[in-house]
Protein backbone atom coordinates (compact mmCIF):
# COMPACT_ATOMS: atom_id res chain seq x y z
CA UNK A 1 0.00 0.00 0.00
CA UNK A 2 1.33 3.44 -0.94
CA UNK A 3 0.19 6.85 0.25
CA UNK A 4 0.92 9.85 -1.97
CA UNK A 5 0.62 13.37 -0.63
CA UNK A 6 0.59 16.77 -2.34
CA UNK A 7 2.39 18.87 0.24
CA UNK A 8 2.25 22.27 -1.48
CA UNK A 9 -0.68 24.39 -2.66
CA UNK A 10 -1.20 24.38 -6.41
CA UNK A 11 -2.85 27.19 -8.34
CA UNK A 12 -4.45 24.77 -10.78
CA UNK A 13 -5.56 21.18 -10.96
CA UNK A 14 -2.87 18.61 -11.65
CA UNK A 15 -2.90 14.87 -12.20
CA UNK A 16 -0.78 12.35 -10.36
CA UNK A 17 -0.22 9.13 -12.28
CA UNK A 18 1.29 6.03 -10.72
CA UNK A 19 2.90 3.74 -13.29
CA UNK A 20 4.69 0.45 -12.66
CA UNK A 21 8.10 0.01 -14.25
CA UNK A 22 8.16 -3.65 -13.27
CA UNK A 23 6.06 -5.57 -10.82
CA UNK A 24 7.25 -7.56 -7.90
CA UNK A 25 10.53 -8.53 -9.60
CA UNK A 26 8.71 -11.75 -10.40
CA UNK A 27 9.30 -12.87 -13.92
CA UNK A 28 12.64 -14.08 -15.08
CA UNK A 29 13.48 -16.07 -18.19
CA UNK A 30 16.26 -18.18 -19.61
CA UNK A 31 17.87 -17.72 -22.98
CA UNK A 32 18.47 -20.39 -25.57
CA UNK A 33 20.75 -23.38 -25.32
CA UNK A 34 22.82 -22.90 -28.46
CA UNK A 35 24.84 -19.83 -29.35
CA UNK A 36 23.87 -20.27 -33.00
CA UNK A 37 20.35 -19.30 -31.99
CA UNK A 38 21.44 -16.23 -30.05
CA UNK A 39 21.83 -13.21 -32.38
CA UNK A 40 24.66 -10.82 -31.72
CA UNK A 41 22.18 -8.08 -30.82
CA UNK A 42 18.75 -9.67 -30.38
CA UNK A 43 16.95 -6.45 -29.45
CA UNK A 44 17.54 -5.01 -32.93
CA UNK A 45 16.03 -7.95 -34.81
CA UNK A 46 12.43 -8.08 -36.13
CA UNK A 47 11.56 -10.51 -33.34
CA UNK A 48 12.58 -8.01 -30.66
CA UNK A 49 9.12 -6.87 -29.53
CA UNK A 50 7.85 -10.27 -28.48
CA UNK A 51 11.23 -11.41 -27.28
CA UNK A 52 11.82 -8.42 -25.03
CA UNK A 53 8.33 -8.71 -23.55
CA UNK A 54 8.97 -12.34 -22.72
CA UNK A 55 12.48 -11.89 -21.38
CA UNK A 56 11.42 -9.67 -18.50
CA UNK A 57 13.96 -8.04 -16.22
CA UNK A 58 16.17 -10.95 -15.11
CA UNK A 59 17.60 -13.93 -16.97
CA UNK A 60 19.48 -17.02 -15.84
CA UNK A 61 22.80 -18.12 -17.30
CA UNK A 62 23.50 -21.80 -16.79
CA UNK A 63 26.90 -23.41 -16.22
CA UNK A 64 25.63 -26.91 -16.87
CA UNK A 65 26.89 -29.07 -19.71
CA UNK A 66 23.75 -31.05 -20.42
CA UNK A 67 21.05 -28.40 -20.28
CA UNK A 68 20.88 -24.66 -20.00
CA UNK A 69 20.93 -21.61 -22.22
CA UNK A 70 24.68 -20.99 -22.30
CA UNK A 71 25.90 -24.49 -22.93
CA UNK A 72 28.82 -23.51 -25.15
CA UNK A 73 29.85 -20.46 -23.11
CA UNK A 74 29.70 -20.60 -19.35
CA UNK A 75 30.42 -24.33 -19.20
CA UNK A 76 33.77 -23.86 -20.94
CA UNK A 77 34.76 -21.29 -18.34
CA UNK A 78 33.90 -23.34 -15.27
CA UNK A 79 35.86 -26.61 -15.18
CA UNK A 80 33.58 -28.41 -12.74
CA UNK A 81 30.91 -27.85 -15.36
CA UNK A 82 33.34 -28.01 -18.29
CA UNK A 83 34.44 -30.75 -20.60
CA UNK A 84 38.17 -30.82 -19.83
CA UNK A 85 40.29 -29.99 -16.83
CA UNK A 86 41.87 -26.56 -16.72
CA UNK A 87 39.67 -24.72 -19.21
CA UNK A 88 39.06 -21.20 -17.87
CA UNK A 89 37.59 -19.04 -20.62
CA UNK A 90 35.13 -16.58 -19.12
CA UNK A 91 35.10 -14.13 -22.03
CA UNK A 92 31.97 -15.40 -23.88
CA UNK A 93 29.68 -15.44 -20.83
CA UNK A 94 31.03 -12.15 -19.55
CA UNK A 95 30.34 -10.50 -22.90
CA UNK A 96 26.80 -11.83 -22.77
CA UNK A 97 26.29 -10.72 -19.18
CA UNK A 98 27.48 -7.20 -19.96
CA UNK A 99 25.25 -7.03 -23.02
CA UNK A 100 22.23 -8.10 -21.00
CA UNK A 101 22.99 -5.63 -18.22
CA UNK A 102 23.39 -2.82 -20.75
CA UNK A 103 19.72 -3.38 -21.61
CA UNK A 104 18.67 -3.25 -17.96
CA UNK A 105 18.34 -7.02 -17.68
CA UNK A 106 19.66 -8.56 -14.48
CA UNK A 107 21.34 -11.96 -14.47
CA UNK A 108 21.49 -14.83 -11.98
CA UNK A 109 23.97 -17.70 -11.98
CA UNK A 110 23.12 -21.42 -12.16
CA UNK A 111 25.01 -23.35 -10.79
CA UNK A 112 28.36 -23.53 -9.02
CA UNK A 113 28.40 -27.32 -8.64
CA UNK A 114 25.91 -30.11 -9.37
CA UNK A 115 25.82 -33.10 -7.03
CA UNK A 116 23.86 -35.48 -9.25
CA UNK A 117 26.42 -38.08 -10.40
CA UNK A 118 25.47 -38.15 -14.09
CA UNK A 119 26.22 -34.42 -14.33
CA UNK A 120 29.68 -34.66 -12.73
CA UNK A 121 32.40 -34.54 -15.40
CA UNK A 122 34.60 -37.56 -15.96
CA UNK A 123 37.81 -35.81 -15.01
CA UNK A 124 36.26 -34.61 -11.75
CA UNK A 125 35.27 -38.18 -10.88
CA UNK A 126 38.95 -39.12 -10.94
CA UNK A 127 39.71 -36.74 -8.06
CA UNK A 128 39.64 -37.71 -4.40
CA UNK A 129 40.37 -36.27 -0.98
CA UNK A 130 42.14 -32.94 -0.71
CA UNK A 131 42.72 -32.81 -4.47
CA UNK A 132 38.97 -32.77 -5.06
CA UNK A 133 38.37 -30.29 -2.24
CA UNK A 134 41.00 -27.91 -3.63
CA UNK A 135 39.58 -28.19 -7.15
CA UNK A 136 36.09 -27.32 -5.94
CA UNK A 137 37.36 -24.44 -3.83
CA UNK A 138 39.43 -22.97 -6.66
CA UNK A 139 36.55 -23.32 -9.10
CA UNK A 140 34.05 -21.56 -6.86
CA UNK A 141 36.42 -18.79 -5.81
CA UNK A 142 37.56 -18.12 -9.36
CA UNK A 143 34.03 -18.16 -10.77
CA UNK A 144 32.66 -15.83 -8.12
CA UNK A 145 35.60 -13.44 -8.38
CA UNK A 146 35.20 -13.16 -12.15
CA UNK A 147 31.44 -12.53 -11.90
CA UNK A 148 31.58 -10.32 -8.81
CA UNK A 149 29.06 -7.49 -8.99
CA UNK A 150 27.45 -8.82 -12.18
CA UNK A 151 24.96 -11.40 -10.91
CA UNK A 152 21.97 -11.22 -8.60
CA UNK A 153 22.05 -14.80 -7.27
CA UNK A 154 24.03 -18.00 -7.40
CA UNK A 155 22.53 -21.48 -7.15
CA UNK A 156 25.27 -23.17 -5.15
CA UNK A 157 24.94 -26.97 -5.05
CA UNK A 158 22.26 -27.97 -7.52
CA UNK A 159 19.72 -30.68 -6.65
CA UNK A 160 21.55 -31.77 -3.54
CA UNK A 161 18.62 -33.62 -1.99
CA UNK A 162 18.64 -35.88 -5.06
CA UNK A 163 22.38 -36.20 -5.64
CA UNK A 164 25.23 -36.64 -3.16
CA UNK A 165 28.23 -37.43 -5.33
CA UNK A 166 30.59 -35.00 -3.62
CA UNK A 167 29.57 -36.05 -0.12
CA UNK A 168 30.04 -39.71 -1.02
CA UNK A 169 33.33 -39.19 -2.83
CA UNK A 170 34.73 -37.24 0.12
CA UNK A 171 33.04 -39.34 2.82
CA UNK A 172 31.73 -36.09 4.26
CA UNK A 173 27.94 -35.92 4.79
CA UNK A 174 28.16 -32.20 5.58
CA UNK A 175 30.14 -31.20 2.51
CA UNK A 176 27.22 -29.11 1.24
CA UNK A 177 27.85 -26.76 4.15
CA UNK A 178 31.50 -26.50 3.12
CA UNK A 179 30.49 -25.56 -0.42
CA UNK A 180 28.26 -22.78 0.91
CA UNK A 181 31.06 -21.64 3.20
CA UNK A 182 33.46 -21.36 0.27
CA UNK A 183 30.94 -19.43 -1.81
CA UNK A 184 30.00 -17.10 1.04
CA UNK A 185 33.63 -16.35 1.88
CA UNK A 186 34.38 -15.70 -1.79
CA UNK A 187 31.64 -13.03 -1.96
CA UNK A 188 29.81 -12.25 1.30
CA UNK A 189 27.41 -9.93 -0.57
CA UNK A 190 26.13 -12.56 -3.00
CA UNK A 191 22.64 -13.97 -2.48
CA UNK A 192 23.13 -17.73 -2.38
CA UNK A 193 20.39 -20.24 -3.15
CA UNK A 194 19.50 -23.86 -2.76
CA UNK A 195 17.84 -25.29 -5.87
CA UNK A 196 15.94 -28.55 -6.23
CA UNK A 197 13.01 -30.33 -7.86
CA UNK A 198 10.13 -32.50 -6.70
CA UNK A 199 9.39 -30.17 -3.79
CA UNK A 200 6.46 -28.11 -5.15
CA UNK A 201 5.31 -29.63 -8.44
CA UNK A 202 5.23 -32.85 -6.43
CA UNK A 203 5.70 -33.40 -2.72
CA UNK A 204 8.23 -36.21 -2.70
CA UNK A 205 11.06 -34.12 -1.28
CA UNK A 206 9.34 -31.17 0.40
CA UNK A 207 10.00 -32.13 4.03
CA UNK A 208 13.59 -33.16 3.30
CA UNK A 209 14.20 -29.89 1.49
CA UNK A 210 12.85 -27.89 4.42
CA UNK A 211 15.29 -29.68 6.73
CA UNK A 212 18.18 -28.87 4.41
CA UNK A 213 17.19 -25.20 4.22
CA UNK A 214 17.00 -24.97 8.00
CA UNK A 215 20.40 -26.63 8.34
CA UNK A 216 22.17 -24.27 5.94
CA UNK A 217 20.40 -21.24 7.36
CA UNK A 218 21.40 -22.18 10.92
CA UNK A 219 25.04 -22.44 9.83
CA UNK A 220 24.97 -18.75 8.84
CA UNK A 221 26.67 -19.31 5.49
CA UNK A 222 24.95 -16.67 3.39
CA UNK A 223 21.89 -18.66 2.31
CA UNK A 224 19.44 -16.07 1.00
CA UNK A 225 16.67 -18.11 -0.55
CA UNK A 226 15.12 -21.42 -1.47
CA UNK A 227 14.96 -22.22 -5.17
CA UNK A 228 12.12 -24.53 -6.16
CA UNK A 229 11.96 -26.06 -9.61
CA UNK A 230 8.40 -26.48 -10.88
CA UNK A 231 8.56 -28.83 -13.85
CA UNK A 232 5.02 -30.17 -13.94
CA UNK A 233 4.62 -33.64 -15.42
CA UNK A 234 3.48 -34.01 -19.01
CA UNK A 235 -0.27 -33.38 -19.26
CA UNK A 236 -0.45 -32.86 -15.47
CA UNK A 237 -2.91 -30.21 -14.28
CA UNK A 238 -1.23 -28.16 -11.51
CA UNK A 239 -3.09 -28.48 -8.20
CA UNK A 240 -3.22 -25.02 -6.54
CA UNK A 241 -4.11 -26.43 -3.12
CA UNK A 242 -1.20 -28.88 -3.15
CA UNK A 243 1.17 -26.18 -4.40
CA UNK A 244 0.14 -23.85 -1.58
CA UNK A 245 0.54 -26.58 1.02
CA UNK A 246 4.08 -27.38 -0.15
CA UNK A 247 5.05 -23.72 -0.30
CA UNK A 248 3.64 -23.27 3.21
CA UNK A 249 5.90 -26.09 4.37
CA UNK A 250 9.02 -24.60 2.79
CA UNK A 251 8.14 -21.13 4.07
CA UNK A 252 8.68 -22.45 7.60
CA UNK A 253 12.40 -21.94 6.96
CA UNK A 254 11.80 -18.19 7.05
CA UNK A 255 13.57 -17.56 3.74
CA UNK A 256 12.42 -16.05 0.44
CA UNK A 257 11.30 -18.61 -2.12
CA UNK A 258 12.06 -18.29 -5.81
CA UNK A 259 10.39 -20.52 -8.37
CA UNK A 260 13.53 -21.09 -10.40
CA UNK A 261 12.44 -23.36 -13.26
CA UNK A 262 8.74 -23.31 -14.08
CA UNK A 263 7.18 -25.03 -17.07
CA UNK A 264 4.19 -27.14 -18.02
CA UNK A 265 4.02 -29.71 -20.81
CA UNK A 266 0.72 -30.06 -22.66
CA UNK A 267 0.05 -30.91 -26.31
CA UNK A 268 -3.23 -28.98 -26.66
CA UNK A 269 -2.34 -25.30 -26.85
CA UNK A 270 -5.40 -23.91 -25.06
CA UNK A 271 -5.04 -26.45 -22.26
CA UNK A 272 -1.36 -25.54 -21.98
CA UNK A 273 -2.37 -21.92 -21.45
CA UNK A 274 -4.86 -22.97 -18.76
CA UNK A 275 -2.31 -25.14 -16.95
CA UNK A 276 0.36 -22.44 -17.13
CA UNK A 277 -2.01 -19.85 -15.70
CA UNK A 278 -3.06 -22.22 -12.93
CA UNK A 279 0.56 -22.82 -11.95
CA UNK A 280 1.50 -19.14 -12.15
CA UNK A 281 -1.45 -18.01 -10.05
CA UNK A 282 -0.68 -20.61 -7.40
CA UNK A 283 2.95 -19.60 -6.93
CA UNK A 284 2.43 -15.88 -7.54
CA UNK A 285 -0.19 -15.67 -4.82
CA UNK A 286 2.01 -17.13 -2.09
CA UNK A 287 3.51 -14.46 0.20
CA UNK A 288 6.87 -16.24 0.50
CA UNK A 289 7.47 -16.33 -3.26
CA UNK A 290 9.59 -13.40 -4.44
CA UNK A 291 10.42 -14.46 -7.98
CA UNK A 292 9.34 -16.77 -10.78
CA UNK A 293 11.55 -18.04 -13.60
CA UNK A 294 10.20 -19.65 -16.73
CA UNK A 295 12.64 -22.38 -17.78
CA UNK A 296 12.36 -21.58 -21.48
CA UNK A 297 9.61 -20.25 -23.72
CA UNK A 298 10.62 -20.82 -27.38
CA UNK A 299 9.51 -23.97 -29.21
CA UNK A 300 12.81 -24.19 -31.12
CA UNK A 301 14.95 -24.36 -27.98
CA UNK A 302 12.72 -25.35 -25.08
CA UNK A 303 14.35 -28.19 -23.18
CA UNK A 304 11.00 -30.03 -23.02
CA UNK A 305 10.10 -29.38 -26.63
CA UNK A 306 7.18 -27.61 -28.33
CA UNK A 307 4.62 -28.88 -25.81
CA UNK A 308 5.98 -26.36 -23.29
CA UNK A 309 6.45 -23.36 -25.58
CA UNK A 310 4.93 -19.90 -25.25
CA UNK A 311 6.14 -18.71 -28.66
CA UNK A 312 6.98 -20.46 -31.92
CA UNK A 313 9.12 -20.03 -35.00
CA UNK A 314 11.84 -17.59 -35.97
CA UNK A 315 9.44 -14.66 -35.56
CA UNK A 316 8.55 -15.73 -32.01
CA UNK A 317 4.83 -15.74 -32.75
CA UNK A 318 2.79 -15.86 -29.56
CA UNK A 319 1.01 -19.10 -28.76
CA UNK A 320 -2.07 -19.17 -26.49
CA UNK A 321 0.17 -19.80 -23.47
CA UNK A 322 2.29 -16.78 -24.38
CA UNK A 323 -0.75 -14.55 -24.76
CA UNK A 324 -2.12 -15.78 -21.45
CA UNK A 325 1.19 -15.13 -19.74
CA UNK A 326 1.46 -11.59 -21.07
CA UNK A 327 -2.12 -10.83 -20.09
CA UNK A 328 -1.29 -11.78 -16.52
CA UNK A 329 1.95 -9.84 -16.19
CA UNK A 330 1.07 -6.82 -18.33
CA UNK A 331 -2.58 -6.39 -17.42
CA UNK A 332 -4.01 -8.35 -14.52
CA UNK A 333 -0.97 -8.10 -12.25
CA UNK A 334 -0.11 -4.46 -12.90
CA UNK A 335 -0.96 -1.37 -10.86
CA UNK A 336 -1.63 1.69 -13.04
CA UNK A 337 -3.69 4.44 -11.43
CA UNK A 338 -4.41 8.10 -12.13
CA UNK A 339 -5.74 10.57 -9.55
CA UNK A 340 -6.68 14.23 -9.91
CA UNK A 341 -5.58 16.42 -7.01
CA UNK A 342 -6.67 20.04 -6.67
CA UNK A 343 -6.34 20.88 -2.99
CA UNK A 344 -3.33 21.54 -0.83
CA UNK A 345 -2.18 18.43 0.99
CA UNK A 346 -4.45 16.12 -0.93
CA UNK A 347 -3.69 12.50 -0.09
CA UNK A 348 -4.68 9.26 -1.70
CA UNK A 349 -3.83 5.65 -0.98
CA UNK A 350 -3.05 2.97 -3.55
CA UNK A 351 -3.01 -0.77 -3.02
CA UNK A 352 -0.47 -2.00 -5.52
CA UNK A 353 1.44 -5.07 -6.56
CA UNK A 354 4.94 -5.33 -5.16
CA UNK A 355 7.61 -3.95 -7.45
CA UNK A 356 9.27 -0.87 -8.88
CA UNK A 357 7.14 2.18 -9.69
CA UNK A 358 7.32 5.62 -11.24
CA UNK A 359 5.13 8.50 -10.06
CA UNK A 360 4.46 11.14 -12.70
CA UNK A 361 2.88 14.57 -12.15
CA UNK A 362 1.02 15.92 -15.18
CA UNK A 363 0.02 19.60 -15.40
CA UNK A 364 -1.97 21.01 -18.32
CA UNK A 365 -1.11 17.95 -20.38
CA UNK A 366 2.62 18.12 -19.67
CA UNK A 367 4.60 15.59 -17.67
CA UNK A 368 6.58 17.55 -15.07
CA UNK A 369 9.75 15.51 -15.35
CA UNK A 370 11.43 17.19 -12.39
CA UNK A 371 8.69 15.82 -10.13
CA UNK A 372 8.91 12.21 -11.32
CA UNK A 373 9.69 9.87 -8.46
CA UNK A 374 10.75 6.23 -8.49
CA UNK A 375 10.27 3.85 -5.61
CA UNK A 376 9.92 0.19 -4.76
CA UNK A 377 6.80 -1.11 -3.07
CA UNK A 378 7.37 -4.15 -0.90
CA UNK A 379 5.56 -5.75 1.98
CA UNK A 380 5.47 -2.60 4.11
CA UNK A 381 3.56 0.64 3.50
CA UNK A 382 5.37 3.38 1.63
CA UNK A 383 4.67 7.13 1.65
CA UNK A 384 5.64 9.52 -1.15
CA UNK A 385 5.45 13.31 -0.72
CA UNK A 386 5.25 15.44 -3.87
CA UNK A 387 5.98 19.17 -3.64
CA UNK A 388 4.22 20.96 -6.49
CA UNK A 389 4.94 24.60 -7.43
CA UNK A 390 3.00 25.79 -10.48
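-> sequence recovered:
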Amino acid sequence: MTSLTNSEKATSTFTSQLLPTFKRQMFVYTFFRRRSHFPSEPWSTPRSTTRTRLEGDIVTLSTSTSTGPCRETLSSGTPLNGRRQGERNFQPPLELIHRLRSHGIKVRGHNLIWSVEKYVQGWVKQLTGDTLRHAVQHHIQDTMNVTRGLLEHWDVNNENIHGHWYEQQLHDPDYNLEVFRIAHNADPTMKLFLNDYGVVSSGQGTTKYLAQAKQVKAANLGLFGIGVQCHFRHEADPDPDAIKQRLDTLAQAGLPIWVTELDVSVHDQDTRADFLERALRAVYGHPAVEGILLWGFWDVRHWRGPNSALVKGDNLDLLPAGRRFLDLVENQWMTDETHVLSQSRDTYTVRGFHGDYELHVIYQGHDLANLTKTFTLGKTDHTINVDVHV
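The longest strand covers residues 223-234.
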